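Hi W., the arginine complex you wanted:
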Amino acid sequence: MDLEKLLSDRLAPAFAAVAGGPVDPLVRRSPRADFQSDAALALARRLGRPPRDIAAAVLAHAVLDDVGVSAEVSGPGFLNLTVTDRALADLVAGLAGDARLGVPPTATPQTVVVDYSAPNVAKEMHVGHLRSTVIGDAAVRLLEWLGHRVVRVNHLGDWGTPFGMLIEHLIDLGEAEAAQNLSMGDLDTFYRAARVAFDADEAFQERSRLRVVALQGGDERTRRLWRLLVTQSERYFLTVYDLLDVTLSAADFRGESAYNDLLAGVVDDLDRLGLLLPSGGAECVFPPGFTGRDGEPLPLIVRKSDGGYGYPATDLAALRQRVGELGATRLLYVVGLPQRQHFAMVFAVAEAAGWLCPPARAEHLGFGSILGADGRMLRSRAGESVKLVGLLEEAVARATDLARSRNPDLDAGTAEEIGRAVGIGAIKYADLSVDRTKDYVLDWERMLALDGNTAPYLQYAYARIRSVLRRAGTAVRPDVPIVVAQPAERALAVELLGFAAVVGELEQSFEFHQLAGYLHRLATVFNAFYERCPVLRATDELRESRLLLAELTARTLRQGLRLLGIRTVERM
Ligand code: ARG
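Structure:
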């Protein structure tokens, strides 16, 4: 049972009685007691009465003894809440017997489409795609663990005018050679070479233009060559996903081209609904509330002046398909913040057209950029965007070296396993432990450090507990009586009981840094407990109880990290 919620549920009726209507008791962790409620202050202002009187009146109405909670009015009108040792022990015993660590599966399972990763064919994945992949995969893991039906969609950029030039370049290079380059991940070289040919050679430009027409017209050979570009790129992206240890698979690719046949219908229907307006030769929708810098209404272009459909039309068709065909009631788009306005406009148009209406809703989970040590957008020394695999390989190599240097007699296989878990874990954690809407600086030293708010710190805390449990020699019994008496035991118990509330919040907020912060706190509180309360040297019931607390901590760390897509290792 989640302690904050329990306290909140108990205080809410008391507040309601005093206020004459519902009041959120605002229960939170307290430096003065186990928890505190601050709601009396605002209520007092509203009722024009002294806050301490209000707090006292609430206390008089609150039923708390039966759950082992004592309360007192403190300071200007806070309620300090202290849970008895006995009550804490009982609650922790409940956790120990629960495979889900107090987190209930959702009572209202939904079909959720998570649109994430979405790199572009024949183009290197950049760090923006890394963030989308890492955050999106965490969202998927969380939602699935809560019991939702999740549909992963990898909205691959596999269509548009650049494909004329890419196919012509493929022809010039020879199919076998091109396929080889692409599947090896040499996407940028391929793309750049195509660009160079395009810029230098008018005949090539003309061929490219004709090729686009052939592609759109369904010409068989052109389609086959285009397929080749797509499959080779997909093959390469899958190797990145494998290295990155994310749950995306080949079955989740559903590129922009998958919606081609739906685009004309989208535009026709918008027209029929009277939402379409011509503007500069293009056909547009002007959703209310969107204006440019000059105050002029902003268009969402659904059909370009050359008659082609673009990115916005594709997203409208995809949204419609996700709600209509897949039956999704929640649509998540894990895409960088520069596309915020695009999604806001797409959602607004979809609502106006009646394609997006309750219970279905769409959310853009935006994120900031990854910066280099100089505080600018991450670039390689040559000034190009940094190649993602290079980054991942470097992380694994650095972590493997660290593991070897700390532990010279590790066999090669184990060192590699640890290096992978820690290196990839460090990359993901560096991303997920900061507010996702903020930029962050990629800092190898910091993200691989064994202390601080890092993956290695948490993985090390986990491995250390596992080592204690191994040395204990006996299996931990989940039903031993739990002793919560020392301050460090209390602190650990309260922290363990907080997991459910933190995870519960994520379902709406997807603020994974809150979970990261929680895990970091838990590991720190555990380390203090381990320093002050002997575990292996304790005897009898106390030993068993402390082993159980240790094991529960390990399980919570592992589950928390698993939700972030980060592996644990048994030794480090
Ligand atoms: N391929 C796009 C890019 O690289 C991201 C696509 C995001 N998803 C979407 N449904 N628009 O920027």
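Residues 115, 118, 120, 155, 157, 315, 318, 333, 335 surround arginine (CB under 6 Å).

W.
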